[in-house]
From TrEMBL:
Record-annotated SURP motif domain positions: 15-57
SUPFAM superfamilies per record: Surp module (SWAP domain)
Classification via InterPro entries: Surp (IPR000061), SWAP/Surp_sf (IPR035967)
Organism: Willisornis vidua (Xingu scale-backed antbird)
Sequence segments annotated as region (Disordered): 69-91
Protein name in the entry: Calcium homeostasis endoplasmic reticulum protein-like protein
Pfam assignment, any one: Surp
Compositional bias segments (type: Basic residues): 78-88
PROSITE patterns linked: SURP
Length: 115
């Protein structure tokens, strides 16, 4: 999954990033509640398919992935996928895995010196 371009507006980027964290932690009900409360707020148009919707969904998937793996950073808490996959390929269970036809791995790790 390639990261969509984030907003240049740092304040909007912070709003999207924080909301993705909260929704990953608190579940889709939190997203629904935010949509109801912020439906008139143009800063939250990304929730309704507006600009940066793709970036929000990407950040949400990333946050959910990190929570599933138990880490707090992009390279922390990685664990082997529960089902056997090719050596060095890691993916969360709710996203496409590299074993599928034509799919790219989310993260490929190789032992030092093996490249």
């Amino acid at each position: 999954m390639e990261m969509p371009l984030p907003p240049e507006d740092q304040e909007l980027r912070n709003v999207i990033d924080k909301l993705a964290q909260f929704v990953a932690r608190n579940g889709p009900e939190f997203e629904k509640m935010t949509m109801e409360k912020q439906k008139e707020n143009p800063k939250f148009s990304f929730l309704f398919g507006g600009d940066f919707y793709g970036y929000y969904k990407y950040k949400l998937a990333l946050e959910q992935q990190q929570r599933e793996w138990g880490g707090s950073g992009p390279a922390r808490g990685l664990s082997r996928h529960p089902r056997a996959r090719p050596r060095g390929h890691f993916c969360p269970s709710h996203l496409a895995c590299p074993a599928g036809p034509g799919l790219q791995p989310l993260l490929v790790l190789s032992a030092p010196g093996s490249l």
